[in-house]
Amino acid sequence: MDGNQPSGVPLGAYVLPGRVTDPGAVVDQARAAERLGLRTVWLSERWGTKDLGVIAGAVSQVTETIRIASGITHLQSRHPALLASLAMTAQALSGGRFVLGVGRSVDAMWTAVGLPRSSNASIVDHADIFRRLCRGEKVRYDGPAGTYPSLRLNDVPEQPVPPLVFAAIGPKGLGLAGRHFDGVLLHPFLTPAAVGRSVQIVRAAERAAGRPPGSVRVYATVVVACDLPPAEEVAVVGARAVTYYQIPGFGERLAAVNEWDPEPLARLRSHPLLAGIRGSADSVLTREELVEVASVLPAAWTGSAAAIGSARACHDVFQRYRAAGADELVLHGSTPDRLHSLFGPTG
């Protein structure tokens, strides 16, 4: 299975997007993804009901060929030996289909939970420690990533080190991915033009590091609402946009990458329903409330940075992201069991 779809673009998709009370839904979603011929299923880890290790293990046992990726977890949220152990166990269970996606997140989160913030140096060193442990090496380390007098996995399966994918938005993160990672995961709600600019930064860093062209696989995340009634379309696209744009600093970064005027962010955040919310809005508000908040966003902030409408219209959007340099698209917002219309005769 090569993951190429009717538009000729390799596609993956998120399972269990957003808030989840029943993680068991991942079984049918993963099976649906494999039936559709998707290349990869992605999980955005969220503490409580979306633990990466448990979900990856479950998906590995109900699928045979599709890759299983985290998109994303964080390098400092688990001890290095535990993260490497999780990854290699997932490799053993899946027959080498696991991909580890990691990100930086925001400093406020790490302060709140009492874990160290990420720096570029700690991210690079964490990645090196991870790879060495997965190869069965003994690691002694004292540096930006912490102090580890003696680390080793005693039993390592005969499987390759999982590809490491770094989630990035700005030029520094994209450059880091180009120099040190196997892939880069681009954020939802980037326009094709923004993806094209991001790809150029990654490729330049790749060349500067002396890596072979195309070493870093570029995954562009695209929120999809295909053949849905207008109210459902807004719920899928607009509500998800709110969860990103409302975060101070994060919304500004997305606007900057898209070369948009950030003024609408102030109007969004002044909405009465967002008063007092410090974390992600979808951890507090209902879907209906998120839709109400989304009404203040400019139409271009969703319409030009998502795939909506008919199957043909969505595939045309996919082609634009592919032309911008994306190697694979990660469909978000609609779970694999709701993507069937993309693969019908009009797709």
TrEMBL record:
Pfam families: Bac_luciferase
Record-linked InterPro entries: F420-G6PD/mer, F420_OxRdatse_MSMEG2249_pred, Luciferase-like_dom, Luciferase-like_sf
Keyword annotations: Oxidoreductase
GO molecular function (one): oxidoreductase activity, acting on paired donors, with incorporation or reduction of molecular oxygen
Domain Luciferase-like: 21-328
NCBIfam families in the cross-refs: F420_MSMEG_2249
The protein, known as: LLM class F420-dependent oxidoreductase
Species whose genome carries this gene: Mycolicibacterium monacense
